[in-house]
Amino acid sequence: ICFSYLTKGVYGMKKLLLIAIAALTFTGCATTQAQNYQFDKSRTYNSSFDDVWSNLVQWHAEKNIPISNIDKDSGLIVAESSGFSDELASCSSSPLVVQLAKKAKLNTLVQQKDNVKVTVNTQFLQRVSLLDEVQTVPCNSTGVLEKTILDALES
Fold it and tell me: What is the pTM of this model?
């Protein structure tokens, strides 16, 4: 009786393994890659540095995006958000991958030259799990966030 139970158990495990391999094979084709987008991340303004800076700080406050580092002398604002919508970034996906969390990192540089130049750099990250392995993978910006910020700084 014990031997037949073990044989059924091994047979059951082999069958389960074959099903898992078949599922991986067929759903592997359903994996979507993150799209790449081309967009402007810098813009020049005819406004004063102080006006652009003030508008940028106000934008962060209105959108409830916490600033983690701000240095007006260097013109740098660094911010993070604990999530983002699919409209802002394209991430790879697969039916076998479980999305755990998303994070957006944002740094904006305001420089005074002849005019005021603003550059917005973003990094979108997705924490995922496949079976018991957890990893952080990058997503590609769609340019929507960068354009939104740059548009908001127009006087």
Answer: 0.76
